[in-house]
Task: structure prediction
Amino acid sequence: MKVRAVRILPRRESTLVECVRHLAGSAKRAKRLVNEGLCCVNGLRETFYRKKVKPGDVVSVSLNPLVFAKPKPEILYRDRHFVVVSKPPFLNTTLSKP
Result:
């Protein structure tokens, strides 16, 4: 498993989760990265996601590819009228509008 580190330089004063959000894709994933201890501010590990970061602070994030892995549903049965799917909880199953 390959883990890579990314450095972020905030442009304005904000919270740690706001800095990491664009990299993680959502606030929930950003909070999880911070809570798991994968974020450092100025070289110190930070687990408080509401920590204030200022311009000039260096935010480092260790990215684990498994954190961003999307689960794939498995189709168990399909016919003209029904589809039976085995999926993890909270995985959206409705059609999204283009």
Q: What stands out?
A: DSSP finds two helices and eight strands in the chain. Residues 5 and 14 are 21 Å apart (CA to CA). The radius of gyration is 18 Å.
